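Researcher: Please predict.
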Amino acid sequence: MQLLGLHHITAIAADPKTNLDFYTRVLGLRFVKKSVNQDDPGTYHLYYGDNVGSPGTALTFFPWQGLRRGRPGTGQAYATAFSIPAGSLAYWQKRLADLRVATEPLSTRLGDQVLAFTDPDGMRLELIATTEPDSRAPAPSTDVPAEHGIRGFHSSTLALTDAGPTAALLTRVMGYRLHAEEPHRARYTVANGGPGTYVDLYTDPKLPRGLNGAGTVHHIAFRVADDAQHLAAHEQLVAAGAHVSPVIDRAYFKSIYYREPAGVLFEIATDQPGFAIDESVETLGQKLSLPPRLEPHRAEIEAALPKLD
């Protein structure tokens, strides 16, 4: 299996307007796609990322209004980490303090400093000031200077009671390899490695069992380059005994889904065609984008969705 790293991470929120404001204005990500949950078109699917929502930068949300808050814990993708330049921690500490976003004390993880905080729904986020090269350009933002901007994902941390079965899936089937370890944490990487490829397996016995709800991750998606690699990945997962969905065309990428042994939902998505397939790069996120099968229902869908302005 020739995975290239993380593709996107999809989480659950409670209020779409609050979610939009936090990720675009506080964190300085670009709103690259306003669409709907294709399995529940009465709910938005909001996408944030770099200038075009490149694979490895796209954080997406299903905002179900009024949904109760979940509880991060074991059996979940527990924390989502972004990569920032090594010298930008002081900027982000001040920015988040000025905006009254509570942060945890700085910590060190596998040699890098980590600033942890939560979004308005309680979702665990981290900014990792990595000393590794990360040439990805940040999203254009009027709120966050480019020299301090988020470069994309650094890693996703899975909280587990037993990391063994998940590690075996990553290394024996998905092509990942062990990169580094410290107490209660093992980091795995794939392809060329570096920020945007990492999956951390975290086994803290003090963590509670996670409960799904607002502020928790719905699934994490991994990248493949094209349709041929996507089909090859499907075949290899089936051969390994995984229960894998058929290939689903999500318009902006193709997807297959399966669960790792602890229950976290994994997806493998193609890099192509990307979010500019139905909008120009300049106007990404400005209109409601619908897959072709939902276009005949546009008027009723738009009428049912809450306003974001």
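Model: Helices lie at 16-26, 89-98, 164-172, 227-239, 298-304.
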